[in-house]
Specification:
The chain is of the alpha/beta class. It is built from 15 helices and eleven strands. The strands form two sheets. Strands 1, 2, 3, 4, 5 and 11 form a six-stranded mixed sheet that branches. Strands 8-7-9-6-10 form a five-stranded mixed sheet, with helices on both faces. InterPro entries: SsuA/THI5.
Amino acid sequence: MRYRKHIAVVLLAICTLLVATGCRDSRRIPMVNGHPQITIIVGGLEKVIYLPAMLTERLDGFARNGIDVKLIGQSSGSSAELALLTGEAQGVVGFYDHTIDMQSKDQCLRTVVQFADVPGEVELVSKADAESVTSPADFRGRKLGVTSFGSSTDFITQALAGQAGLKPADYSTVQAGAGQTFISAMNHDGIDAGMTTDPTVAQMVKSGEAKVLLDMRTEAGTRAALGGLYPASSLYMRCDMVDAHPDIVQKLADAFVQTLRWIKTHSAEDIAATMPPQYASGGKDLYIQSLRDSIGMFNGDGLMKPEGSQNVLNILGQYSRSVKPARDRIKLEETYTNEFVQRALDKRQ
């Protein structure tokens, strides 16, 4: 029921905004002084999994490639999708699985740069429950934290529980947010376990407040948990936007590929020194450790691996209420493209 309500709220919001904005062409990209003005929603600017967005800005990657990009932090994937659908933003840095989910709802989104082949997510269990919750099979009767309902962490949590033979009715899903909201939920018995990312993982593990139950920051950990790769952090856009502005999409791909290659040749210390100082609010050493634990997730080239996209569809097709009934009509080739990234890579050779 909560999913039907969630979808209804999103659709109502879309209708309201479309009425308010009239017949504005959502494919239009504003120009100022000859430079495209791009707004990109990021599903958490301070999260390490989305680090390439802010790092590209800090490295002047957007300006160097002739585009003016405004990054806006947003914790809700559904809100980011709404911004895309109404033309309030031209791109989202978020999880690839949203492109499949939205296609099941007859909306076309396409990933144009794939940052990572794995989720970069960690299932943490609270210190109080660590001895009794040792695998997803122990999720029965537990309160499990996700970023928000319908989020990628919600999809993956359903998959982990489902593979252990559990149904959604066997456990409670709690919208725990991220960062301090997540920490508070775990420390005040709001959740028994939950899915989150660095730097929150590093902070809670170091303090002893939680332990790592499943680590999907590595390929080995992701394959063990989800049966294969699960491409996650990416830049995706509306399909009609991609088709209407290939030159601008190419500039974005060039900028992000340059950043992904930069990450592979620099240390966690180098990255920490480049990022905004406030991102290390929990302490410089802790932030560097969180980077060291997670930066291996980035693939270095921006390419989508077909094996990964197929595994995402396999998982959503089993455990997503939206995708499951539409699985047989999902066209994966419309959910991503490697053409822009390949051109960017060719330029570097």
